[in-house]
Sequence to fold (69 residues):
Amino acid sequence: MDAKGKTQVKWVTISEAADCMPIPVSPSTIRRWIDEGKYGIVGGKFAGRLVVRLDSLPQIRLETLGGDF
Fold:
């Protein structure tokens, strides 16, 4: 939380987002999922680069892995 009591949102690059996944996923797959609106990934632009809201990635983990793990 910041000084005003608001939660800070962490944004990561596409490559960092791919590295956070528990299964092998390429950065191009993350880009495609954002374009297709899959898994609730929140993407945005920062300084001309595509970034991903880190707290939107756990939704992908649960759906991708399902109950098999």
